[in-house]
Amino acid sequence: MTEMKKFLLAVSAGVVGVTALHLAYNMNWSDIRNSRLPPDQRKLNVAFIPVT
Amino acid sequence: MTDYISRHSDAGNLFLPRLFQGFPEIKEALISDKMQAGFMVAPMAIALRSQGVPIRIVYLGHRYGSAVVVRKDGRIHTPADLRGRTIAVPSRFSDERLIVFRVLKKFGIPISDVKLVEMAPPDVSGALAAGAIDAFSMGEPYPSQAEMGGYGRVLFHAREYWPDYISCVLVVRQDAIDRRPQVVQTLVDGIARSGLWLEKGRPYREYAADFVGRFYYRQDPALLRWALTNPLDRVMYTPLSPYKPDFDYIRDMMRETGVLDRGIEFQDYVDTTFAEGARHKTAWIYEPGSEHAR
């Protein structure tokens, strides 16, 4: 494997890793799933702040 | 709390909770329909409805649970000592501001003799510790945070001067009420059942402090444990039905203090249908740490 191929492989692995972490931690999948449901089946989004 | 327990029930989670850091952001999210429901301070809900925003108050979030806190080593020992001081409140549209007005009036201090500043709730304890403010009027757990940190002392709890004190209310967009009343009823039922569950005693409150702190508020569970158990009635979760006299008083105080420019009737900003529907609900059957709720 050439140095260039190693470099590209490392970069690709890094991009895939960061993307996977982003998808896991920054995306709100329950929100996305909910927004794709028909309006009459969606759950309500309820806002709160950390105060009683 | 309702979300956590309902996830353990056969019905699954009833709604999608979304954490915000301030009431103005919740207001914008409701107006833009990003949120269909939310918890906010009662005067803000009344003001929004008065301005034509299509929301209704359907339930309370809790009763009591606000306090005016001063520096532990400071010279403020009675409300009369607040004259000339800087006091932080969460919003000009908040019951925490109204309680300051009410108490100052009782002690014959004109509001012009204090400086009120608006501050996001998570910032007030730090501001008090740093000496940037002399006092704050805020809901829990921020009074508890100042007490636990050793730099704050509760000057008075709101209920000492306002026996029927309420603060956070649940508001729902009118279109959600019109189109999906059963979903709103399920939400209110869940909150009612959670309130009754919390009032079953100290172990339930301690367990709630643990999971709410870790999974929802991102706060130290010990802080919430302090707020929920020191003493047990520091914050109450029954009764949560909205009562007209409580709201008439808030509305009148808002007009008196210049944050509401016209009168608005109770039935125009409160929908009691769902509270009435939840009246006979019973507490969640859920033991701390168990895997199943019903």
Note down, in words, how this protein is organized.
The complex is a heterodimer of chains A (52) and B (294). The mean pLDDT of chain A is 89. Helix content of chain A is 58%, strand content 10%. With 52 residues, chain A is mainly α. In chain B, 47% of the residues are buried. The two termini of chain B are 14 Å apart. Chain B has a five-stranded mixed β-sheet with strand order 7-6-8-5-9, sandwiched between helices. In chain B, helix 4 links the parallel strand 6 and strand 7. Strand 1 of chain A pairs parallel with strand 2 of chain B.
Structural class category of chain A: mainly alpha
Q: Quaternary state, please?
A: heterodimer
Low-confidence stretches of chain B: none
Strand content of chain A: 5-15%
Principal-axis shape of chain A: elongated
Strand arrangement across the biggest beta sheet of chain B:
7-6-8-5-9
Helical percentage of chain A:
55-70%
Q: Largest interface by residue count?
A: A-B, 15 and 48 residues
Beta-strand percent range of chain B? 15-25%
> Radius of gyration of chain A over alpha carbons?
19 Å
Question: What order do the SSEs of chain B take from the amino end to the carboxyl end, as H and E?
Answer: HEHEHEEEEHEHEHEHEHHHHEHHH
Number of helices of chain B: 14
The pLDDT mean of chain B sits at: 92
Specify the overall morphology of chain B.
Answer: globular
Rg of chain B to the nearest angstrom? 19 Å
Order of helices and strands of chain A: HHE
User: What structural class is derived from the secondary structure elements of chain B?
Assistant: alpha+beta
Taking the alpha carbons of the first and last residues of chain B, their distance comes to 14 Å
